[in-house]
Structure formats: structure tokens, C-alpha cells
Design goal:
With 215 residues, the protein is α+β, with helices and mostly antiparallel strands. Helix content is 24%, strand content 24%. It has helices at residues 15-20, 34-79; strands at residues 3-4, 10-11, 117-125, 136-142, 148-157, 163-168, 180-184, 192-196, 204-206, 209-211. The strands form three sheets. Strands 3, 6, 9 and 10 form a four-stranded mixed sheet that branches. A hairpin with a 7-residue loop joins β7 and β8. The longest helix is centred in the first third of the chain and has 46 residues, at 34-79. The chain is globular.
């Protein structure tokens, strides 16, 4: 028979007896008539309906939570990170090289010392990648004969976009590959010395420098 247990859960009694009662008669040992069977089937239908509603509610809650999580992730990505997090662009700083013994401080302020090769680039801050205008850039190299002299050196000042330009002869070298030395010293940053290696036959080259901030 169908009844309600102490815990409030519906339980099945003599299921075979319920199935056999199609004429409203009680089984042997009776106690449950056709009307009771109808009530039993109604209880089962109610249980199944409640079960379906429970699953629908459960799935709806899970789907809603998943959609909310996706929305939060999308907003976080669109805003550039978690709320309150400051995200500044980072630039890899330029590694400083050795100081060339042929360096002389404060070469003359000039951007044209020869013809045939132009070195250009941009000076940036390693803090936020911002360009650094009005910065002194010292440049020197050996002349076409491979000898360092007073002619092939100079200082240029970056423009409002942090750009510099230096026109000279194609460098020579007394040993190894031809190269051009560049030194940048700005208050608040570590002095940086870099070397540019122009390829034979080229007429221009670019060397961008990112300064490392002082600790």
C-alpha cells in the first residue's frame, strides 16, 4: 500500500496489489479500495511534479550562477583587471653595456657630423613606457678608418615625442664589427650605455632605449 512514513516520505506498499485494482475491489486481506488507489496515483503524480520543479529550480540556479560568473569575468577583462588594481604598461629596460674607453663626457651639441648613415630611435621611461622629451643622447663611434676622433661624436636632444636623430658616416672599426655607442643619462634613472651594430651596406638604423628607474 501507499502511505506516509514517520519522516514524511511517501513509501510504496503492495505495488502489485495497486496495479491489480482496476475494478475498485479490495485485494485479499483488503484495506485499500479503488478510490484509495486513485489517491495513491495522485500522490505519485504530485511527487513527480515536485521532483521536476526541484530539478528545474536547481538547474536554473546553477545556470544563473554560471552566467553571472561569465559576466564578471568579461567586465574584469574589459576594465583591464580586478577592481582597484592599477595596471600600468611595462617596457623591458635596456641592459647597459660596458663603458667604452674612448668615451669623452659632454660631446658637442650637434646632430650631423657626416654623411651616409642615420641612427634614430626613441627614449622611454621604464616605469610606464612614457616617452622622454628633451633628453640628452650622447653618440660616438670610430671614423671610416677605424680610428676614434673628435669628429664622429656628438650630443642630440630628443624632441617632444622622445625621438632622436644622428647623421654620420658609416662607422669603421679597428677590430670586430662596426658599431656605434650611445649613452643616455637622465635624473631619476640609471645611466644607460648601449651599442648599435649597423649591417654593412645599410644607411639607417634604429635603436630605442628604455631607461631603468633608480631604486
Amino acid at each position: 500500500m501507499i502511505g506516509v512514513g514517520a519522516t514524511g516520505h511517501y513509501r510504496m506498499g503492495s505495488l502489485s496489489a495497486i496495479r491489480s485494482r482496476t475494478d475498485g475491489a479490495s485485494p485479499a486481506g483488503g484495506g485499500v479500495g479503488g478510490t484509495d488507489v486513485g489517491k495513491g496515483h495522485g500522490v505519485i503524480r504530485i511527487m513527480r511534479a515536485r521532483s521536476r520543479r526541484s530539478w528545474i529550480g536547481y538547474l536554473g540556479g546553477r545556470i544563473g550562477a554560471a552566467l553571472a560568473a561569465c559576466a564578471v569575468a568579461a567586465l574584469t577583462a574589459w576594465s583591464g583587471g580586478p577592481a582597484g588594481a592599477a595596471t600600468a604598461p611595462k617596457c623591458p629596460v635596456t641592459s647597459t653595456g660596458y663603458m667604452d674607453p674612448n668615451y669623452t663626457p659632454n660631446p658637442p651639441l650637434r646632430s650631423h657630423v657626416g654623411n651616409g648613415f642615420v641612427l634614430m630611435g626613441v627614449i622611454r621611461s621604464g616605469i610606464d613606457c612614457a616617452v622622454l622629451p628633451r633628453v640628452r643622447v650622447e653618440i660616438w663611434h670610430a671614423g671610416p678608418t677605424g680610428v676614434y676622433d673628435a669628429i664622429h661624436r656628438g650630443t642630440v636632444i630628443t624632441d617632444g615625442g622622445g625621438r632622436y636623430r644622428f647623421e654620420t658616416d658609416f662607422p669603421g672599426s679597428s677590430f670586430g664589427q662596426p658599431h656605434i655607442h650611445v649613452r643616455v643619462a637622465v635624473p631619476g634613472f640609471k645611466p644607460t650605455v648601449a651599442v648599435f651594430l649597423p649591417k654593412p651596406g645599410t644607411k639607417t638604423g634604429e635603436l630605442d632605449i628604455v631607461l631603468e628607474p633608480e631604486v
